[in-house]
Specification:
The protein folds into three domains: 1-30, no CATH class; 32-86, no CATH class; 90-151, no CATH class. 25% of the residues lie in helices and 29% in strands. It has helices at residues 20-25, 115-128, 133-151, and strands spanning 2-7, 10-15, 35-36, 41-42, 47-48, 53-54, 59-60, 65-66, 71-72, 77-78, 90-92, 97-102, 105-108, 111-114. Helix 2 (115-128) runs antiparallel to helix 3 (133-151). The radius of gyration is 19 Å and the shape is elongated.
């Protein structure tokens, strides 16, 4: 992967793998909330922080560590010794499965929304899909539990 850094008013091209020592000296790391696009190749022993989003066809090398809430796109390939953070939350309720879609979205059945939208509009969404008042209360508990777990910073 190549990145540009501004140095003395000029843009300079760096190769993340070849120039890793120089980038480390400059304390340039891939931290939390990074978004890497499609077809990115990350070398061995890269450490990605929490809530990083990896696009389609990303290739991860040996020993890569992925933090909590990392989102993996289609056709992502994980190399040897890749370690994932916590398993994404999934709760089978009375009607549909509640699942973590990505770092800040939940799905219930085929409905996928930001956590904040579920918290605000869970009653309306439930009614639109024929949920009873009891089922809506049940799923509100699941939404609250998932939101608490997903937003927890460790």
């Amino acid at each position: 992967m190549k990145i540009y850094l501004k140095e003395n008013g000029e843009w300079k091209l760096f190769d993340v793998e070849k120039d890793s020592k120089e980038l480390a000296k400059r304390k340039i790391l891939l931290g939390n909330y990074v978004c890497l696009g499609n077809d990115v190749c990350l070398g061995n022993y890269v450490c990605l922080g929490n809530y990083v989003c990896l696009g389609n066809d990303v290739r991860l090398g040996k020993g890569v560590r992925l933090g909590e809430g990392v989102s993996l796109g289609n056709y992502v390939r994980l190399g040897n010794d890749v370690r994932l953070g916590k398993s994404p939350i999934q709760i089978q309720g009375t009607r549909h499965l509640l699942y973590q879609y990505d770092y800040n979205q939940l799905g219930i059945g085929c409905e996928i929304h930001m956590i904040e939208e579920w918290e605000k509009n869970y009653k309306e969404i439930g009614k639109q899909h024929g949920y009873t008042d009891e089922e809506i209360k049940e799923y509100k508990l699941y939404i609250d539990l998932a939101a608490k777990r997903m937003m927890k910073k460790e």
